[in-house]
Design goal:
Elements: H1 2-13, E1 26-34, E2 43-51, E3 54-59, E4 69-72, E5 77-80, E6 82-87, E7 92-93, E8 96-97, H2 100-109, E9 112-118, H3 122-134, E10 141-145, H4 154-166, E11 172-175, H5 179-192, E12 196-199, H6 207-212, E13 217-219, H7 245-252, H8 261-274, E14 277-279, H9 291-295, H10 300-303, H11 306-312, H12 328-350, H13 370-381, H14 386-393, H15 395-400, E15 418-421, E16 445-450, E17 453-456, H16 457-473
Parallel strand pairs: 1-4, 1-5, 6-9, 9-10, 11-12, 12-13, 13-14
Antiparallel strand pairs: 1-2, 2-3, 5-15, 7-8, 15-16, 16-17
């Protein structure tokens, strides 16, 4: 009997921490404080049992078996993996090659387990998606939404949608469109079961057209205040040129103040009625209201890829690198823009709208993954309780992706997409950063687990740094 007990204890003692990038058959996370993601409060200590990538039990006193992988999570929090609804798997910046593993590993290091990729190279992203699903690539789960492009006729738009469907995409992104081609593409996409994410610029179309066509999400905030302008057009100066990025973003910072509150209210109501979600990407324009902060983020020193750093440098040839003669006046307008934008986002959810969270990193001084974490802070600044913020970043994204019964929450039967965190994110979202915004380097997220594949964040950061160091040497 003593020998049997000894052998059992020996087997259990041999159960090590997870092996980086290798999915165990059975894993138990022990003694964690759990935040489900639905908006309900934290609970714990609880044990989470994972088998073949799926959560099978959340309870106290889970019984380990010989060969199990065990994780001591006492004093730690477990939250759902984050769902980035606006990602770009870039392979270059400004024509300079960049290893896409840099993007993928940063996403994982910052706790992102699912990405809706909106507009990267289609076949490359589809291949990455398949490798991620098979566990052959250290990467989040990918939903692939390629660009519609700018077809010149309704017939060309319909043919492009058919091509996107035939190649196996999960949805489609539209960046601006003429009304006739937009309507044709939207009709065909609906028939094909392809949801649409739309980025509306200063176009013939605005949020009213997006709502009428029942798109899945409106990205950023383009088009929403435009649909509420009293005169139907913003009060641009005569010298304004939309294709001049400095003009475009300077006056974008003066848009929300021109929107009529009553018209805006009607636009938000219509979005709710038609089931159009809003993915506001709050962090991506933050440099506009505080350029100095954006240029001096602490993770740049070790983890900023030189191709990305060069792309950020003010240069009107690069999208989003528009800080030419950027002034305190520009920042003041953008600060007001944010105040009004925050109010509209709060109002939208209060009316019953669905808010999601996406980063759009790779532009405007935002690094992959870190931009998503900054979004958490900005959603809180906008007035949402941290539990609601996590819901925006998890459950709501899963709902829009029609995967709400698979991903987005810590619950038995759901995919094991989990973050094991050293600290309480409900108290301070900064504990999620893999590099402290305050002082030095620390691991906030210890493990990012995607579909049961565990990734040790310190190892991910080491791999990212090696990519950056090699690129800097070149």
């Amino acid at each position: 009997m003593r020998l049997l007990v000894f052998l059992l204890l020996l087997a259990l003692s041999a159960a090590a921490q997870p092996q980086h990038g290798v999915r165990p058959a059975r894993m138990i996370i022990q003694g964690a404080t759990v935040v489900e993601g639905t908006g309900t409060p934290a609970q714990g200590p609880l044990d989470i049992t994972i088998e073949n990538g799926v959560i099978t039990q959340i309870a106290r006193g889970a019984q380990p078996r010989p060969g199990d992988t065990l994780v001591d999570a006492r004093g730690k929090y477990v939250i759902p993996g984050l769902i980035n609804m606006h990602g770009h798997l870039h392979q270059e910046r400004g024509g300079v090659p960049m290893d896409p593993n840099y993007v993928l590993k940063l996403w994982l290091a910052c706790g992102i387990t699912t990405v809706r990729d909106v507009g990267s190279a289609l076949q490359f992203t589809l291949d990455a998606k398949a490798k991620s699903e098979r566990g052959e690539l250290a990467a989040p789960r990918l939903f692939v939404y390629p660009m519609l492009g700018r077809p010149g006729t309704p017939e060309a738009a319909v043919n492009r949608v058919k091509e996107i469907k035939a190649r196996g995409a999960d949805g489609m992104k539209i960046v601006g469109a003429w009304r006739n081609t937009f309507d044709a593409a939207a009709r065909e996409a609906k028939a094909a079961g392809l949801p649409i994410a739309i980025h509306i610029g200063v176009e013939e179309t605005n949020a009213t057209d997006a709502i009428r066509n029942q798109v899945a999400t409106i990205e950023h905030w383009y088009g929403i205040p435009d649909a509420a302008l009293p005169a139907g057009v913003q009060n641009f100066p005569a010298s304004y040129n939309y294709l001049n990025e400095a003009d475009r973003f300077r006056y974008a910072g003066r848009l929300w103040r021109e929107a009529d509150p009553q018209k805006l209210s009607a636009v938000l109501d219509a979005m709710v009625v038609q089931g159009v979600a809003w993915d506001p990407t709050l962090e991506i324009y933050e440099a506009s209201r505080d350029l100095q902060r954006a240029q001096n983020q602490p993770w740049f020193r070790e983890y900023l890829h030189p191709a990305l750093g060069s792309f950020f440098t003010p240069n009107l040839e690069n999208h989003g690198s528009y800080f030419i003669n950027w002034s305190s006046t520009d920042e003041a307008f953008w600060k007001e823009n944010y105040r009004l934008w925050f109010a509209a986002v709060r109002d939208f959810e209060a009316r019953g709208g669905t808010l999601t969270m996406g980063e759009d990193a790779g532009y405007i001084y935002q690094m992959y993954g870190f931009g998503m974490l900054r979004n958490l802070e900005l959603h809180q600044e906008a007035g949402f309780h941290p539990l609601r913020v996590l819901r925006h970043a998890t459950v709501n994204g899963a709902k829009v992706l029609h995967a709400e019964n698979t991903i987005g929450r810590v619950r038995a039967g759901w995919s094991a997409d989990l973050l094991i965190v050293n600290g309480n994110p409900l108290e301070d979202f900064k504990v999620l950063y893999p590099v402290s915004p305050n002082a030095g380097t620390r691991t906030g997220i210890e493990w990012t687990i995607k579909a049961g594949f565990p990734y040790h964040v310190p190892e991910l950061l080491s791999e990212v740094k090696a990519i950056v160091d090699q690129a800097r040497k070149r």
